[in-house]
């Protein structure tokens, strides 16, 4: 009877091991699946950010446009690496953990099988004890009961040995798989972050090279041309500086609409009353006069 109790204690330990594995592996699977889904959602949000950056870049000046496009391209590369990260997490971590549930169920089925064999052994022992108490003189019945007990004990011993081998193999595989799962997880994360760091470094350099002052010059030149607001600061020279002219001339489509005081008699109505920036730069300095205090003035304008 002591052997039976010893086997029962052994089986309870195995059952607790399986229950523990089922509980924590299930939690690992759930959490890592959620981690993978959130990583995929982060990738989607970053893709939306890339799209917005490109749309914004297309509405800005050339200097900022080039910088934002370069930054968006680098950010898109990181999302390509993040996509690979999601796929690898699903393949090498989450899916194997999902399949582990089948192995746990199979091993627990072996434990239940052993419990049935053990219960038969216990029942045969109980019958033998009752028979000895009720009919101690009936040697034939007692002998038959003892034979049944021995047979049940042999079945229980054989099943116990098989169960020990099964649970031992399961435990070995569990520990090896646990090591593999989290090694894969760490490797996937390290590869992603190493690649991402490389691309983010490039993105940082792209942003560092951005020439803010040049963009401001383009912006100011555009505002002056579009709204007709001219610089009223005192000028040391009445002629515009070459840098300003070059900045203004870079806006190829910019034209200033003015009423010409005198048309060219050789080419009447050549520009239909529109004064082009190129003409102003090249040969129309006569239309610019210097007012009081050295301010730059246009015909028909007064301070």
TrEMBL record:
GO terms (BP aspect): cilium assembly
Subcellular location: Cytoplasm, Cytoskeleton, Cilium basal body; Cytoplasm, Cytoskeleton, Microtubule organizing center, Centrosome, Centriole
Any one GO CC term of the record: centriole
Pfam families (alphabetical): FAM92 (PF06730)
Main location: cytoplasm
Superkingdom as given in the UniProt entry: Eukaryota
Keywords, alphabetical: Cell projection, Cilium biogenesis/degradation, Cytoplasm, Cytoskeleton
Transmembrane segments: none
Family assignment from sequence similarity: Belongs to the CIBAR family.
Record protein name field: CBY1 interacting BAR domain containing 2
Organism: Papio anubis
Species classification: Eukaryota, Metazoa, Chordata, Craniata, Vertebrata
Gene: CIBAR2
